[in-house]
Amino acid sequence: MTDRRTTIKLIIAATAAFPALRARATYMLEPGASEPGNVRQFEPTTQGYGPDPDLIKAYEKGAFWPLTMNAQQRQLAAALSDLIIPEDEHSPAASAVGVVDFIDEWVSAPYPLQREDRATVLNGFAWIDSAAQHRFAQPFARLHESQQRAICDPICNASRAAADLKVPAQFFATYRNLTAAGFYTTVAGRKDLQYIGNVPLTHFDGPPVELLRKLGLA
Amino acid sequence: MPFVTASTQRGPYDVIIVGSGAGSGQAAYTLCMEGVRVLMLEAGRRYTPARESAMFQTPDMAPLGEAGTPDKNKGFYDATVNGGWEVPGEPYVSIPDKWGSHFTWWRPRMLGGRTNHWGRISLRNGPYDFKPRSRDGLGFDWPITYDDVAPYYDKVELLIGVYGGDASLENTPAGPGNTLLPPPKPLVSDHLLMKHAPRFDIPVLPGRRAVLTQAQDHRTIPARLHPGNPRAQKILADAMRKRSPCLWATPCGQGCAVAANYQSTTVHLPPALATGNLDVITDAMVYEVTLAKDGRANGVRFVDATTGRHEHVTARVVVLGASAFETARILLNSKSGPFPNGVANSSGLVGRYALDTVGSSVSGQIPLLENLPPLNEDAADGLQVYVPWWLYQKQIAHKLPFPRGYHIEYGGGKGLPSIGTCAGLEWLTGGSYGRKFKEDARRYYGSFIYFDGRGAMVPNDNCYVEIDPRVKDKFGIPVLRFHWQWGDYEQRQAVHMQETFGEIIESMGGRVQSPVITDPVKAIAPGGYMIHEVGGTIMGADARSSVTNRWSQTWDVPNLFVADGGVFPYNADKNPTLTIMALSWRMSDHILDRMRRREL
Questions:
Q1: pLDDT of the residue at B317
Q2: Residue B10, Cβ neighbours under 10 Å: how many?
Q3: pLDDT < 50 regions, chain A
Q4: Which residues of A202-211 are buried (b: 16+ CB within 10 A; e: fewer)?
Q5: Do the Cβ atoms of A193 and B445 come within 8 Å?
Q6: CA B408 vs CA A56, B201, B263, B418, B441: distances in Å
Q7: What pLDDT, on the 0 to 100 scale, is given for residue A37?
Q8: How far apart are CA B152 and CA A46, in angstroms?
Q9: Which pLDDT score, from 0 to 100, does residue B328 have?
Q10: CB neighbours (10 Å) of residue B462?
Q11: What pLDDT score does A58 carry?
């Protein structure tokens, strides 16, 4: 038996020495793993993409299984994603580059890890909207940023959240990870991080000596 | 057409090779270049890297941002197709099936096997690694020495193209000095390791991977590899000219359409096919070696996965290179009068001494590496530098609680952002979101370093495979049952990795990402995770204590050979693929020699 943290750790241990591969949520066998969570609404019924999909084709979100979030959930998803990754001078907001579709595809997927996240995310949506109704008598998506922050501040750090907020805090951590995953893999996200690779070069020069000197490494 | 079926095959063949990965690819190459007629059988489908490699595809183009799933375990664009930890319709059994003592079995079902996605790390075994028992009294010696294999390491490095450094250290040989390509320039994070390593007395060497950092010398290498064989020289020169040097971009694990790294499908098979001596049947699930009345192997039976029909093909020599444990499975399933427990199993050792590599990892975050200017650090996709094992003398003096060592595969840098790149940052950010989160993401991107320990495993009696008495796969073939238990030595070694990596990260002024694991059971990755399966048909000095001899030839059946990692009686810390190829080339030379003497 193992908990998910251990699993993720071992996933990382199992990945060979490629930074590009390492951070992927690599699937692995998990003997004795518990069943996915308890939310059963909108359960995806379609199968996955199979072990031999066409890798050259580019895929729209929803190409392999239908997106399943309803309009209200998508509005909430957009509001929360943009609260986490708003527009700034470097890049647009998360929802402007397709992050809601990314998350919808994720929680609609037929695979075990995603189904577990589906339960976390949809339960979290329900919690956050009920908190919004309770405190501000509005759905979360219609609140001002300061009101949204009043709800999210207590759950934004799972290790410091109050005992009765541990579950919502875990949701927030999952949701922030998904938002960051969807955002930083886009062209806009890569640009924000100033990633300049994945282009063919005739030679590889390594870092400039001036930089190494500045860092005390040359 | 060299791709044939059971009905269109063009026998008679001299040699049947089962499998198409590193060992089988090398055997096909060596034999075909010398005019031997070879029939290769691959359980999976035909695979064409030039057309199918998703090289420049980025995670946003894939479902789920390229996350690993039960369908594609290592990510959507990973070159492995129809394979992974589970293969539909092809179960296996693991006993006991609990965390820490189970085995997970990676199986690709495709032409070229694992070589399409592997890490390309290509380390030579050293002299100690071939004679471990003589050195410390544990495990088994190989029946061969480093000097027996060294010429074949030279040849394989020249053929496939391996970058690295020419420095030799204790039990870390480098060859004659003219077989390796220049290593890639170190990244900023590599310079950090090079600065701090001396404090720990650890050596840092250029990494070694099968990637062309420059074009191969097609004018001189063919003559060195095939003296006196102008046709082979020409074929190899042509094949080398068709390979491009590294583009310094794209993850190698997604496959290389321009053949800048080694895959059997881009390096071994094209020249072998160009000889006209190689025919290949794909979708051929081999399950039995058949014997003639004289006790010699005369062919193999397989199920054609496309028709479901059982087929029989014949040749003068049979070479099994299906992967160590699949090869053991075929032998164990080949029961007959003379071999009631499986062919070539008079020793009872087929399937015994299953081995993998010890794996344990620690990552850290380094303030010095925060907010660096934009840098293209794709390089050749990893392992610009590495740390070979450095405490041999301490071990031989019994000053460490484990007898065998490990090397460190180290990495860092501003890699292609993936779904995990900016995930899980709370431990650094305190849970930021909004504009602050975006600032934090920029600040921490590229500031992480990764230490992966890869260690030796002493063979033990608790790790073996056998045929499960009940379970069969979709073809009706009895499946393997795995027994697995890491020894105390391996577990203590993994704790040493954890503690060492944690100390190094802290000495760099960094923070360890998750606590160093000191529980020996938890510090080690489960069996099979490193995908370094070897053993099960181990080579040895006599027929009682081993399955194969010094030529990878089974003791019981003189024309039956093993070309994969099955022959390893010991798995040193060095990644096994280069040694698999060197031993396969050596075995193939022996087959050629025996054929010329009309003994086979």
A1: 98
A2: 11
A3: 1-45
A4: eebebbeeee
A5: yes
A6: 34, 14, 24, 24, 28
A7: 25
A8: 51
A9: 98
A10: 11
A11: 84
Q: How far is CA B566 from the centre of its chain?
A: 12
Chain A residues with CB under 8 Å of B215 CB are: none
Tell me the per-residue pLDDT of B271-302, one tens digit each, with 9 for 90 and over. 999 999 999 999 999 999 999 999 999 999 99
Contact B54 A199 (CB under 8 A): no
What residue type is assigned to position B512 of the chain? V
Tell me which chain A residue has its CA closest to the CA of residue B100: A1
Task: For residue A166, list chain B residues with Cβ-Cβ distance below 8 A.
Answer: none
Query: What b/e sequence results for B141-174 when a residue is b if at least 16 CB atoms lie within 10 Å of its CB, and e otherwise?
Result: bbbbebeebbebbbbbbbbbbbbbbeeeeebbbb
Q: Which of B65, B97, B246 has the CB atom closest to A102's CB atom?
A: B65
Residues in chain A: 218
Other CB atoms closer than 10 Å to residue B91's CB: what's the count? Answer: 14
CA separation for the pair B502, B512 (Å, rounded) = 6
Calpha distance B518→B461 (Å, rounded): 26
CB A52 within 8 A of CB A44: no
User: What is the pLDDT at residue B311?
Assistant: 98
Write out chain A residues lying below 8 Å of B422, CB-based: 180-181, 183-184, 193
Cβ <8 Å between B373 and A211:
yes
Closest by Cβ to B418, choosing from A185, A201, A207:
A185
3-class secondary-structure state, position B50: helix
pLDDT tens-digit series, residues B409-455: 999 999 999 999 999 999 999 999 999 999 999 999 999 999 999 99
Instruction: Characterise A87 by phi-psi region: left (phi > 0), alpha (psi -120 to 50), beta (else).
Output: beta
Which member of A2, A52, A84 has the closest CB to residue B437?
A84
pLDDT at B94: 84
Q: Which of B72, B373, B426 sits opposite A157 (nearest CB)?
A: B426
Res B514: pLDDT: 87
With contact defined as beta carbons under 8 Å apart, do B203 and B388 qualify?
A: yes
CB contact under 8 A, B413 and A84: no
Q: How far is B327 from chain A (nearest CA, A)?
A: 23
The verdict on a CB contact (< 8 Å) between A48 and B58 is no
- Is B417 in CB contact (< 8 Å) with chain A? yes
The nearest alpha carbon in chain A to B451 belongs to A17
Quickly state the pLDDT bin for B102 (edges 50, 70, 90): confident
Q: Which residues of B touch A36 (CB under 8 A)?
A: none
Mean pLDDT of B398-417: 97
Q: Is B344 on the interface with A (CB under 8 A)?
A: no
Measure A130 CA to nearest chain B CA, in Å: 21
Query: Which residues 119-148 in chain B show a CB within 8 A of chain A?
Result: 119, 121
| Six-digit token string for B188 | 């900023």
Backbone angles phi, psi at B150, to 5 degrees: -50, -45
Strands B13-18 and B310-320, sheet pairing: parallel
Other beta carbons less than 10 A from residue B323's beta carbon: 30
Assigned token pair, B270: 């094209």
Alpha helices in B334-401 (DSSP H): 392-396
User: In B, which residues are within 8 Å of A173 by CB distance?
Assistant: 424, 426, 431
Contacts of B88 in chain A (CB under 8 A): 51
Cβ count within 10 A of residue B191: 22
| Chain B residues within an 8 Å CB radius of A108 | none
Chain Cα centroid distance, residue A199: 26
Residues of A in contact with B365 (CB under 8 A): none
Burial of residue B228, with CB atoms counted within 10 A of its CB: 0-12 exposed, 13-18 middle, 19 or more buried: exposed
